[in-house]
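Researcher: We're teaching a course module on how sequence relates to structure. For the next exercise, students receive a sequence and then see the predicted structure as tokens, so they can try to spot secondary structure elements on their own. Here is the exercise chain.
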Amino acid sequence: MQSTTYYGVSIMENSQESTFDWHENCFNIPNRYFWSPQKLNHIFNSSNMKKFFTFSFFAVALFFSALLQAQNSPGRYEVRLVHGAYNCAKDSVVVCVEIRATSPDSAFVMGNANFLLIYQNNQLSTPVIRSRGAFSGGSYATMTITRTDGDPTSALSINVVNTDIGGAGTTVDTNWKNIGCIAFSTAGNTSKCYNLTLSASNPATIVTRAYENPGDPEGVSLTQEITQGTLTSITNQCPANPTVALSGGGTINSGENATLTVTSQNNVLPAQVTLSGNIQVTLTAQEPTKNILVSPNTNTTYEIVSVTGDCGAGTGQGTATVSVTIPQNCPPAKCIPIVTRIVK
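Model: And here is the predicted structure for the students to work with:
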């Protein structure tokens, strides 16, 4: 009896007493079918199969290499604050917090973290979570915030807690990842301008990486503080107010109409516009440009008296002049008697 092994598959052959029922591509043992040695050789030696196994090997190796690197990386990170949007009608502003690794070899699995924000009480107040990002749910507890009131400034901590095992979690790579967005009240802040600072120390923003416990691979992940990189804060952020332009006018005959055009220049809408003559115009996102018909009796120059947006006074640009032509009436016709004499 001869034993032949094909890529880990051992096949027994006996040319005299073989009970195998050989076919073109497989042989039959009652109720079991196997690839024949010729077919196995064909499959495993084909160029496409070699390419497939080579690609699969490197793909798997790359995945585990990236995962291992992220778990073993000493890590270095950057954090930035991103101004979201004002809602001056409701006296609020939204700010988002984002993180990334400073370089590919600084990537790490997010462990526990506290992101410390400092704000002035006369500018911002009563922070609440507007949305949670990549480090809330799944491998992480629900993201929370902790407020510490002070005078004249207060502090806000955004808290991330890794609850997974074996160093699992979300990898912080060189792409910006959203941590969460916070809504602040701007009530009492007439200008709506604000500063918001990411605190580097006293108190400090702290980020740790999660990694597998060598003594208990299936146990709760261990964490290690990593190096703090650039922290980008928000300085003197003010709302954009509407800018509106006036154009049009021209020459008309008395009693005719002229067209004035009012147009938003920066798409900060809605905007309430008042023209000379107490003409009221409202520009909206649906109608950022409006035409107004006027019919003055005399030459008139129109100006923008005021522009008002949700967050305060805006700016007006341009004028429009309408010149009125008045037809001149001729004096009444006069009759002059003519006397004709015929002289013979």
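Model: If you want an answer key for the exercise: Confidence is low (pLDDT under 50) at residues 1-36. The domain at 74-237 is CATH 2.60.40.680 (Immunoglobulin-like).
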